[in-house]
Specification:
This protein is of the alpha+beta class. 17% of the residues lie in helices and 44% in strands.
Length: 367
């Protein structure tokens, strides 16, 4: 095997496929990068047996061949090289790498031991604008659960129907829903799947991402195809919770809140809430103010008044401020958010409307 490739092109390729390397595997080959050189093309593959990534770039290939090298070491080497031609030679047991005045010899692994890239025949597919999808995933993926005992809650429900994309995530304490209009090729039926939250976020931040991304599913996989990259993840099986039954048709109190003011006030008030992460919201419709307050037996207490527009009854509710911050950060590109309340012991619902409509439902805590 012998080929030459530019450092910048190689560095980007390695940053794409490194997301698929296993970090704590007992099989050394899973922490490696499979490299296949053939006429004019280099193909890189990684897998941790849950996700598999394949990425291709152009290169000057003099002798075709395959090899597997340590992904971490190769990535660290390439990062430090100048932006010049990088030459690889060898591959059976050792590969020599040279660039400018630098040279390295890396031990290699047998490519025969590397798992074959998964084959797939897609049952359903849809092509979506990646920038919009990335913005939507950013708004919901922090709400996915980290509890491995309920894998369905670690996923994001993707539903595309009648030119509307909708993403839904919940960890059972809170629920995030966002939707946006998009022109899609006419679907015979709704496109729906559950994508692991971290996978969805990671794939959309890859440097090789193109303007549009094709998403498809098989019985056990969700597949992303864009440019010269194919990213395959294991699909989450099961029935996503019926989130619609949690959304009330109306509310007793509606509060319009300026997001920058609210964010700053919440930061100040929550400084006290070290051991108890709850912040109390008292809504006064007559004074058109919302009082934020927090207390701690050891530290003391804090309060702040925030001017708001209120429709409906006066109301009090206590919410976990960490979760409220996640909501505020997700809606930070808007100026205003609405808080809708039914009662002290029913969930609070934050809503914002723009290019991406956003809803965030949060269970109350004891006051």
């Amino acid at each position: 095997m012998k080929f030459t490739v530019s450092q910048s092109s190689l560095a980007q390729a390695l940053s794409v496929v490194s997301k698929g390397m296993a970090s704590n595997s007992t099989l050394p080959v899973l922490s490696g990068i499979y490299i296949k050189a053939e006429e004019g093309t280099l193909e890189f593959q990684t897998t941790n047996l849950t996700i598999s990534i394949r990425h291709k770039i152009a290169a000057n290939v003099e002798e075709p061949g395959t090899t597997v090298v340590s992904g971490k070491i190769l990535a660290n080497i390439v990062k430090t090289l100048p932006d010049a031609a990088v030459e690889f030679e060898g591959g059976e047991r050792v590969v020599s790498i040279s660039c400018d005045k630098s040279s390295f010899r890396l031990n290699t692994l047998d490519p025969v031991d590397f798992p074959e890239f998964p084959q797939f025949a897609l049952d359903q597919t849809i092509e979506l604008p990646s920038e919009l999808l990335s913005e939507m995933v950013d708004k919901v993926y922090k709400v996915t659960s980290k509890d491995t005992s309920r894998p369905i809650l670690s996923g994001i429900l993707l539903n595309v129907e009648e030119n509307t994309i909708r993403l839904v995530a919940t960890d059972s304490y809170r629920l995030a829903v966002c939707d946006s209009n998009v022109e899609t090729s006419t679907l015979e039926s709704a496109f729906q799947t559950i994508v692991p939250g971290n996978t969805f976020h990671d794939v959309l931040t890859l440097p090789s991402m193109t303007e549009k991304v094709l998403i498809g599913t098989t019985a056990s996989q969700v597949v992303f195809v864009f440019g010269n990259t194919t990213y395959i993840s294991r699909k989450i099986d099961g029935q996503f919770p019926n989130y619609r039954q949690l959304l009330p048709p109306s509310c007793n109190t509606s509060v319009k809140i300026n997001i920058p003011q609210f964010n700053a006030a919440l930061k100040r008030v929550s400084v006290i809430a070290l051991t108890n992460p709850s912040v109390r919201f008292d809504i006064d419709p007559d004074g058109k103010v919302m009082k934020l307050s927090a207390s701690s037996p050891d530290q003391g207490e804090s309060t702040e008044l925030l001017p708001v527009e209120v429709e409906g009854d006066g109301m009090s509710i206590a919410l976990n401020y960490h979760y409220v911050f996640d909501c505020v950060n997700a809606a930070s590109d808007e100026k205003e958010i609405t808080l809708e309340l039914q009662s002290t012991m029913q969930p609070g619902i934050f809503k914002s409307y723009s290019k991406i409509n956003y809803l965030y439902l949060l269970m109350p805590v004891r006051m």
